[in-house]
Write a structure and sequence with these properties.
Blueprint lengths: L1 H14 L14 E12 L5 E11 L2 H7 L1 E7 L3 E12 L2 E4 L5 E5 L10 E7 L8 E10 L22 E7 L24
Parallel strand pairs: 1-9
Antiparallel strand pairs: 1-2, 2-8, 3-7, 4-5, 4-8, 6-7
Length: 193
């Protein structure tokens, strides 16, 4: 009886197969159409990042999630400047007003650690099909280890149609990539200056 039960259970479990497919961009809440990073590093390791991002809203979840963008930074060692923030609907661009950009401390660690701040940008008139355009600069003017700089480009949270980063450094650069699908192209060159 036990053998028949085990055989019947194994046949039942095998019959419950699942069909799956890869996620397509239209299944996602939002898609990053373009992200570009310009990064400058001096020989002390101080850096300036200029990020330019365009995100397309696909559905209601994306509308809710993308209508407020956040940028976290260390207030003592860094400065954030919003260069451009706008919503595009059918070619019409609506800029984010200054009153819809707020920078506040977050977390309750300031008694023990540096004050972390969050810049929150509330985009107007976001709907399905909107494009959110955000360009900002982060300047890091104090580094923990002089002469050292590091950066992690992590692509696990976004569907990116196009990403590129341009890095100019007075420090020697070394890179490593974990790219089992060979989706990334890294070009390195030294200036003759």
């Amino acid at each position: 009886a036990f053998c028949a039960l085990a055989l019947g259970l194994s046949i039942f479990l095998r019959a419950q197969s699942a069909s799956a497919r890869f996620v397509k961009p239209e299944d996602l809440p939002a898609v990053s159409e373009r992200e570009h990073a310009d990064i400058e590093i001096d020989k002390a390791g101080r850096s300036k990042f200029t990020i330019d991002r365009v995100v397309r809203v696909i559905n209601d979840e994306g509308r809710e999630r993308e209508s407020i963008q956040s940028i976290d930074f260390n207030d003592r060692t860094s400065k954030v400047t919003i260069l451009l923030a706008e919503t595009e609907n059918g070619g019409k661009r609506t800029p984010v007003s200054k009153k819809n950009i707020e920078i506040k401390p977050f977390g309750d660690f300031s008694r023990y650690f540096d004050t972390m701040k969050r810049a929150k940008i509330s985009f107007p008139q976001v709907k399905i099909g909107s494009k959110i355009h955000l360009r900002y600069r982060i300047e890091v003017h104090e580094v923990p280890n002089e002469g050292f700089w590091s950066f992690l480009a992590d692509f696990n949270q976004w569907y990116l149609e196009k990403y590129d980063a341009h890095v100019v450094s007075e420090l020697p650069l070394f890179h490593w990539k974990n790219d089992p699908d060979s989706a990334l192209e890294v070009k390195s060159f030294k200036s003759s200056d």
